[in-house]
Amino acid sequence: MTMEATTLVDVDPRVVQRQRLFWAMWGIAHILHLWLLHSGALRSVPAWATMVAALALVRWPGHRWLPAILAVAQLTDVAYEAPEVADHWALVAAANVVVLLLYAAGRRGPGLIDQAAPVFRTLVLIAYSAAALSKWN
Question: Phi, psi at residue 71, to the nearest 5°?
Fold first, then answer.
């Protein structure tokens, strides 16, 4: 059994490639956050689970369930770290909630990122607008 996702005949290969690139970069973002936040010393089981899931997603970005597994691991890590959660880690958690909602709605596969992109953009807009407003005050 391979770790690669099966693709449908009528799916544009560029969509599949774009989604694999997104998931690989999403995994790298999780890895960098954990590594830089903890100075390379992961101190909890949820942090280790998130790191392992992110490494697996980078290795197999086309896997059907790894994005959901990473989302669950990261949200578990956020719950474990609460109330001392870094701002960007909370933003990633919000995006991972969107990923899980799309999975729960049965929307997994090559079009998931295109469906989630508007929500991701809105989350970033709200987060950075709030940051700019707080610096302005």
Answer: -60, -45
